[in-house]
Each structure stands twice: as structure tokens, then as C-alpha cells.
From TrEMBL:
CC per GO annotation: cytosol
Alphabetized SUPFAM superfamilies for the sequence: D-aminoacid aminotransferase-like PLP-dependent enzymes
Domain of life, per lineage: Bacteria
EC number in record: 4.1.3.38
Family, as annotated: Belongs to the class-IV pyridoxal-phosphate-dependent aminotransferase family.
Protein name per the record: Aminodeoxychorismate lyase
Alphabetic keyword roster: Lyase
InterPro entries noted in UniProt: Aminotrans_IV, Aminotransferase-like, BCAT-like_C, BCAT-like_N, Class-IV_PLP-Dep_Aminotrnsfr
Amino acid sequence: MTSPAPTVLVFLDPAFENGRIADSSQPQLMATDLGATRGDGVFESLLAVQGRPRKVQAHLNRLGSSAAALDLALPEQDAWRKAIDTAINEFRNVHPAPTPEEDEVVVKLIVTRGVEGAASPTCWVQASPSPAGSRRQRETGIDVVLLDRGFDTEAGERAPWLLLGAKTLSYAVNMAALRYAHKQGADDAIFTSTDGRVLEGPTSTVLLAHLETVDDGDGSVRTVRRLITPQHDSGILPGTSQGALFAAAKAAGWELGYGPLVPQDLFDADAVWLISSIRLIAPVNHINGKEIGTPAVRKQLTAELNELFAGIE
Ligand code: PLP
């Protein structure tokens, strides 16, 4: 029998300033919790590297906007920060990483509406090991298929109850899309809209690079490097990794662009990546079986982006 993956739970509880550590091998939620019965809640996933949680403020901000979209009142950010630190410290004490390179902890912030009629939501932090598969994909790259999400790019604005830009607990559709991609022999998927735009991955943001050689007319030739991501107002989740990476890339001289993007833009790109807080930067080798760019350019640009990303707190 395989033992369950090590997990640390820390509930936000006003009686415990730094959060209340709970036994993850024991039941901790009511079976009637609306998070369990309706997927009614929101979450965040962030990575702690060598004990330091990354982009905490950006994740707390997005947790706040997701919660606002569901009319959920959250505890103060300070309570979250303390519970995050407790969870990471407890996890690293109980499960020390064998090497500094493997010292990564996945930290989830989870909020459910609680049981019917609850005065406040149920909130906890979960710390668990980072999946080896995700770490591997940063190196090997991934093959991706395009999948129709079934919405147009204006659905989010027209029908805000779809909660398209919020990170809700209802990820069953995203997980089903991943399984569908796996059955087709791919590692991941990129959603497209019914009006033909590139959206996002089921758990990631799409990023592409275009390199353009510009002749300045004075005999000098330079390469303009452009990073592009789909526009945020197309019913996608604004990625904290994309936001942080864009800021770092801009400082390093990249030009930045925000869609709209169509699938042909992906096929024409010099490199495409799926990026997220846990897997970080996964280069896309093939989309629908077609190679994107060349292995050498993918490798070089991925190394550059990794270096920029490593500097992000
Ligand atoms: N889009 C979706 C649907 C996601 O679930 C995620 C992350 O899980 C992302 C984008 C990337 O967001 P971040 O970079 O903040 O992890």
C-alpha cells in the first residue's frame, strides 16, 4: 500500500493567531460544507522555494478579487500570511527536502462558503510536496492540444455569474479538459474561444515570444524581442506569474503585448510557454502535433525567462 502524500493543514481560526494546525489524516470538514457539495468557494496555489513563499501579495490580491466575485468575506491578509508561514514551517520540519533544489512546497489557500447558513467562510492553508511531473515539464517541455472552451471572449462581461476570471473551487471542467488532452496523447491543453481567440491553459497562462530582426538603416541590425499574452478581459484568469514575468522582462528590454491572439499566432511564434506558479515556465514543443519554433531557440529563450523568473520574490 502506498502511503498518502504528506500534507499539512492550517485552518484560519481567530482563536489561533498563527493558524490552527490540523491533522490531515483525519476528517476536518463537514460533509455538508458548500465547498464540497457545490464547489462553492475560491482558492490560490503558490510555491514556496527554500521556505520562502513567492508572490504572496499578488496571490492574496487575486484571492480577494475571486472572493469578491462570489460575495465571500475573507479574513484579513495578515491572518493568511501567518497561516502560510505556519504551514510552510511545519511542512519543512516534518518533511525536510533531501536537497535544496527539491525544497519546494505547494501552498494552497482555500476558502469555502462553509455549511449552509454559516456566519463566515471556512478558510485554510494546505502545504504539500511539489509534483515531480511539473518540475520535469520545466525541463522537457510539453505537447499541447487546442480545445474549444465553448464561450466567446465577451461571455465573462455579458454573464458575470459564470465567474470566468475568478479562481473558483469548481475546477472539474479544467481537470476534465486535462484528462481529455491526456487521452489524445498530449500533456496539456490551450483553450480557445468560440470567436477563435487563444485563451489560457486549464491551470496556466499562455505566453509567446516573437523575435524580429530590425534594420536601423545605419548599417546596424538588432533583434526586437516581444512577449505576448492573451488580453485579460477575455474571460481568463489574470496570471500572477505572467504579471511578475512581464514586469521583469520589461526591465530587461523585452517589448510586451496583450492579445487578441488567434491560434495561428501560436504556430508562427518563436516560442510558446504555459506558465503558472507551481509548474513555473513550461516550454511548448508541439501544438496539435506541429512543432513550435526550433529546439535551440526554445531552449535559449526558456533559459532567459527562467533567469528573469528566478529573480522574482
Ligand atoms: N489560468 C488558470 C485557469 C489557472 O488555473 C492558473 C493557475 O493555476 C493560471 C492561469 C496561472 O496563474 P498563476 O500564474 O497565478 O499561477
